[in-house]
Amino acid sequence: MAAAPDRQKALDAALAQIDKQFGKGSVMRLGDEVRAPIEVIPTGSIALDVALGIGGLPRGRVVEIYGPESSGKTTVALHAVANAQRLGGIAAFIDAEHALDPEYAAKLGVDTDALLVSQPDTGEQALEIMDMLIGSGSLDVIVIDSVAALVPRAEIEGDMGDSHVGLQARLMSQALRKITGRLSQTKTTAIFINQLREKIGVFFGSPETTTGGKALKFYASIRIDVRRIQTLKEGADSVGNRTKAKIVKNKMAPPFKIAEFDIIYGQGISREGGIIDMGVEHGLIKKSGSWFTYDGDQLGQGMENSRRFLRDNPELAAELERLIKEKLGVGVKPAASEGEAAPKLKAVDGSRRRRGGGSGFPSGGPDQDTEGSGSGLSPDAEPDPASVARAIVLRQLTSSPKSRLQLSRKLAERNVPEDVAEAVLDRFEEVRLVDDAEFADMWVRSRAQSRRLAKGALRRELAEKGIDAETAANALEQLSDEAEEHAARELVERKLRNAGEFSDRAERDKTMRRLASMLARKGYQPSQAFRIVGDVLDAARTDQDL
Over 50: is that where the pLDDT of 338 sits? Predict the structure, then answer.
């Protein structure tokens, strides 16, 4: 039934007000435009990509991978990280278990130099870091390994045997409520790795359950149960595992599909083995005895030789992977293999652009629109300056805190256009990843404690790093005159411990000038420096006389 004219006018007025207040596209009709294809990150296993029904892990969603110990959970997640990086994206790994092996990750294709890694002390710290990184709008995938290791602060600071019922579940529920919307807006995939526990007193059905409460089960768009089902051997030696992955939950395609693939020790998921298995299953590769043949050409005798042949011929492997996905209706381009050119994320004027076009900050947080065609991946596009700038800033902040001026200088050294650099730094300030006030407070605390610097020297250092006078003054308020003088006395006393006794006044005066010069270099006023040194020398002589 058609809406009455007055009702339609009221609705149009409401929609116009919503667009004005919250931004264009906050409310839309599903029929207004064709929905874009789902953006995905390939898992590294063609069988798993097909079982997921969309060709990989969906961008902007929560994914949970769980299973018994040593079943391949982290391996699957690291392959997704490697594929995201090959597509020109930025990845982060929250290593709550403190067990990430960089060498193994590199063997799976992860660019460990570019990977952002955090090893938090508490669950709250881990999830806060995760929230801030997602809020930056710069990440493509973030992995949390594992949920079971996200221990609440109260449990860590408490005594053994204390009861902390429900703390972790409440922590996960609060975090997921905050990040789910941001993940969708920034097109970031969050992969939670989880462990299994057994419920006591279950007589019917499976007693297995995952840690972290029910919130993750609810918010996850994809849940994958990963199990090791067989040990692969060459002769008497074990070379890997046959792994089964069941799609327990899938909001993007029909669930309960099962994929099997091989994980080779030290190499990860056998992409080529998966292509051969799927090719034989769907009639693209013929198997006669132990020989595998494609289009009249022999790939090799036996699975290992055929794998090696495809590994040495990546173009053929890519062609087979494409044909398999096309036949099964999974229309996603495969990740680039070693030796192939990696496709890049589309430039800023392509699929994702900040409203108004002024910032040059694609996928930049909660005020983003999604425009254009679809997947956001373009094999031919070069990284835009804003993407380069975000990557530089994230790497700089990962190594150590920095002021805005320091980051601006780094971007200038890398020839990032000034307007793009300013727009990116503005966005990082909005999400508080760049904060000169916090940087100044941290700098004063650190330098005053480790270098015993006085306010004068600290003020000069802050000015060199672009901190304005008012912000510097506020940061220096935490350093009292008494603490400053106490630090100077301790420093002078430590220097005098090995000086021995003074034979005459000339030797004493020489020592006084040397120590006072040292304090002056650390920012103390000359009169203050000579007074402190004199007091310490007098106290030392009195002790010697006694």
Answer: no
